[in-house]
Amino acid sequence: MLLENKTAVIYGGGGTIGGAMASAFAAEGARVFLVGRTPAKLDTVANSIRDAGGQAETAVVDALDASAVNDHIDAVVEKAGSVDISINVISHEGAFQPLADIPTADFVAGISKALTTQLITTKAAARHMVKQESGVLLFFGGSDHANAIPGLGNVQVGMDAVESMRRQWAVELAPHGIRTVTLLTGGVVDAFPDTPEFAAARQGIMDASPLKRAATTADVGNVAAFVASDKGRSIASTQVNISFGACYG
């Protein structure tokens, strides 16, 4: 198994993307700790993992509360002995509109929440990884400067900001043996709501790929598990493109 004896913490672990990553990590032998704010969603993912023979635990934690996040990660390390993988895939209020139509407060609020939770959760994990002199910090979404399209509002701006933060973490943490990697996607089609308005978005994502395909949640989980494993140890301080060629990053 790729992740045997590894400990993974997934913030937003009850969501579609977070759940897919958690399931993939657990299937490869990791002990996963799912963090979120909705117990029912966390329990659904955890029970599915346990039914498949994996190890999963849940915790209700507000990722905007630094004290709560730090208390939780300390408890994980005390119980499991280490934190080897950490990823934050918490969804935030994105405004898919032309920039001119978004109220300033709404534009700033979405990006602020994304950056704040990423900073808090990454700092918490990094504190232990530095002591261990090892660990993998995964990020999701990525920055694709070559393919800017209208109507993304503050969503792509927020992802660009997170990717900038990831690059800064990389140069500061690499000397401690910590890898930082972003999964660059052009959109994960089966994570979208099944509505007519999103049907067009799904088709647009597939049309942007030379292969006319798009990543699924299973693809995201499988790639994340490999990147986080020792077999992916040479992948560091970079983005991994899982967009079927739609993104150029």
Task: List strands and helices in order, with pairings.
Elements: E1 7-11, H1 16-27, E2 31-36, H2 39-51, E3 55-60, H3 66-80, E4 85-88, H4 104-132, E5 135-141, H5 153-173, E6 178-184, H6 196-207, H7 217-228, E7 238-241
Parallel strand pairs: 1-2, 1-4, 2-3, 4-5, 5-6, 6-7
What would you say this structure looks like, in words?
The protein has one domain: Rossmann fold. The chain starts with 6 loop residues before the first strand and ends in an 8-residue tail after the last strand. Helix content is about 45%, strand content about 15%. α1 runs parallel beside α2, α3 runs parallel beside α4 and α4 (about 105-130) runs parallel beside α5 (about 155-175). The longest helix has 29 residues, at about 105-130. By secondary structure, the protein is an alpha/beta fold. It contains seven helices and seven strands, in the order βαβαβαβαβαβααβ. The protein has helices at about 15-25, 40-50, 65-80, 105-130, 155-175, 195-205, 215-230; strands at about 5-10, 30-35, 55-60, 85-90, 135-140, 180-185, 240. It is globular and about 50 Å long. Strands 3-2-1-4-5-6-7 form a seven-stranded parallel beta sheet, sandwiched between helices. Belongs to the short-chain dehydrogenases/reductases (SDR) family. GO terms for molecular function: oxidoreductase activity. Keywords: Oxidoreductase.
